[in-house]
Structure formats: C-alpha cells, structure tokens
UniProtKB/TrEMBL annotation:
Keyword terms: Glycosidase, Hydrolase
Family: Belongs to the IUNH family.
Record domain Inosine/uridine-preferring nucleoside hydrolase: where: 4-300
A GO MF label: uridine nucleosidase activity
Protein name: LAME_0D03268g1_1
Protein's GO biological process: purine nucleoside catabolic process
Matches recorded under PROSITE patterns: IUNH (PS01247)
GO cellular component terms, semicolon-separated: cytosol
Keyword Hydrolase attached: yes
C-alpha cells in the first residue's frame, strides 16, 4: 500500500479524490487537511467531514484544518464552478458525524505522518499548494523524507480562468506557494504535476455519469451522480464544456500507482515530460498564475518536475467505478 496524505479543498472533483484515497486498496490514507480554495476553509472542512461521513470513514480518517489563506494574495474562491458551499448540487450530503481534529495543527499531523512513513509516503495536493509549501518551508528536514508530491495544478498549453486565459485555478490562487515547490531542487524533482493538459481529457460524459449512478442502488452513487450533474452544468455555463466536466483532482492518484510499481506502464500509460517550471506571481502581470516552462530535461534524469500529459483514461474511470462499488458496500 502507498501511504498518502491528502490536502484538498472540496470541491466536486476533490470529492472523487477523497473517494479514491479512501477506498482504492492500493492506498493507505493517513489523514486529510482541508484548505481554503474552492470555498472558504470552514466550508471545505465541513464538506470534507460530510463526505467522509457519507463514505462511512468518519472514525477512521483524521481531518485537520489546513491552510486558511494564500501566502501573499487575497483569497479567491470558485463559486462559479462549485457553488457557494463549494459542493453545491445535492441534498444527499449528511451532517458530519466527525469533527476537525484539534489535538494538533495540520503541520504537526503531516510531520508525524511523514516521520512514521519516512521514504515511502507521498503527499497528494488537489487544491492550492499553500499547505504543502508551508510545511516544507517551516520544516525543511522533511523534504528528503517524502517520496512524491502529486499535485493537480497548472496548465502548459491550457488555462481555466476567465480573468487570465493562461492560468489554472490552484496555481493562480497562490502562485508564491507554487513557486516554493517548483523552485526547490529537492521538491521540484519529487513533484508530479497533473495539469489541465491532462485533466481536460478526463471528461465525465453522459456514459460516465451513468456508470457513476450504476443501478442507482446506493445513496453514495446517487450523491456522486448529483455532484457530477451540478459540476457539468457549471462547466457548461462558466467554461463552455458541452460534453461534460473535467474531473481533475482524482487523476493525481493514478501516476503514483506506476511510480510505486504497483501497476505497470502498460496499464497506466502515464506520459510525462521533465520540466523546470515557474509560476508567474507578480500581481500586475497579465499572466498572473501561469505555469511557465523554463527548461526541459531529458526524461532519464531526475531533475525537474514530472509533468503529465496523458494516461489511460479507461483505467482511471475503472478505478472510480471500483472505488464507488467498494464504498457502496461498506
Ligand atoms: C482545480 O480547481 C478547482 O476548482 C478544482 O477542484 C481543481 O482542483 C482545477 O483547476
Ligand atoms: Ca480541488
């Protein structure tokens, strides 16, 4: 099993990342930090607790409050995509049966997880990089102790902000934190970036929606079906996606299966380039939040960020369906 810590901002697609982290047998989810992002931090925390309650994991997965705001920029949320709550579109979300853990800070909780699984643990980040960058900034000795940092963020040839077509939301909301990871020699080479170039291939079409619903036999499948429908409507109105929404965040988990040799390249088919990246962080730049390529390294070297461009989408959707099946039975 791959030990992981998930930092997220649910978020409709974050909800799918939580599902896969909790239920795919290849992963051991040690904890979650819920950070500001798609909605203010109190809302993403509530959504996380509600989701793990819906999945029956409320007594198993500790949830901490993560980063509360970006390093430098003013907080910006995404109600145009995820609604005011961050997870609009369903009445099937239960009242949380767990609370945020308050025994320690998320920084201490992540530190303990990393120290307990030194050399094997990976961090999965599906929101801004604020929490992750804060951790390594304050505790640099942890850098050598993590295996990978798998991040949904950025876009090389694609963007998704109306304000600025070259920027992607997770990097745009805290480009300074992103740069801390991209410019650090140790962290950048451990970073697997899953950018829009890849996630825009993971479209939840009508067929995928039906797969999610299956025979509609479980509340959890109905909950995810309703989340997908709302997400699709948002993406159609705000971004002009006509065939369905791109389900970005859970894709971060798939390359890990190949890099930990749990699956083969034939199965996962993760295609990547090794790139030195920079996030444009000047508030007045017309390209604020863009992930710019500074240099490309040969794939054989272990310098530069691993930036994904393709993977086996059939395999990915199979994993989503598998996790939904396992979650519905539990
Ligand atoms: C990213 O932005 C958020 O709205 C999604 O949850 C995803 O993490 C896509 O740009
Ligand atoms: Ca997210």
């Amino acid at each position: 099993q791959i030990p992981i810590w998930l930092d997220c901002d649910p978020g409709h697609d974050d909800a799918v990342a939580i599902l896969l982290s909790c239920f795919l047998p290849q992963f051991k989810l040690l904890g979650i930090s819920a950070s500001y992002g798609n909605a203010p931090p109190d809302k993403t925390a509530y959504n996380t607790l509600s989701l793990i309650t819906a999945m029956g994991k409320q007594n198993q997965i500790p949830v901490y409050a993560g980063a509360q705001r970006p390093w430098v920029r003013k907080p910006i949320y995404a109600p145009d995509i995820h609604g005011q709550s961050g997870l609009d579109g369903t009445s099937l979300l239960p009242e949380p049966k767990a609370r945020l853990c308050s025994d320690q800070s998320y920084l201490n909780a992540m530190t303990n997880a990393i120290e307990a699984y030194t050399g094997t643990i990976s961090i999965v980040s599906t929101g801004s990089l604020t929490s992750t960058a804060t951790l390594f900034n304050e505790r640099p000795h942890l850098k050598s102790m993590v295996k990978f940092i798998s991040v949904m963020g950025g876009g090389i040839n694609e963007g998704n902000r109306n304000e600025n077509e070259t920027a992607e939301f997770n990097i745009w909301i805290d480009p300074h934190a992103a740069n801390m990871i991209f410019q650090d020699p140790i962290l950048s080479s451990k970073c697997i970036l899953v950018p829009l170039d890849l996630t825009h291939q993971a479209i939840a079409t009508k067929e995928i929606e039906l797969m999610v619903l299956s025979d509609g036999s479980s509340n959890l499948r109905r909950l995810f079906y309703e989340l997908f429908i709302f997400f699709g409507q948002s993406y159609e109105h705000a971004q002009g996606f006509e065939t369905g929404p791109p389900v970005h965040d859970p894709l971060t988990l798939i390359p890990l299966l190949e890099f930990y040799h749990i699956e083969t390249h034939e199965t996962v088919a993760f295609e990547y380039r090794r790139l030195q990246l920079q996030a444009i962080d000047h508030e007045n730049s017309p390209n604020l939040g863009q992930t710019r390529v500074l240099k490309e390294y040969p794939k054989t070297c272990d310098t530069g960020t691993i930036v994904g461009f393709k993977l086996n989408m059939l395999y990915f959707w199979d994993q989503v369906n598998l996790a939904l099946g396992l979650a519905s039975k539990s």
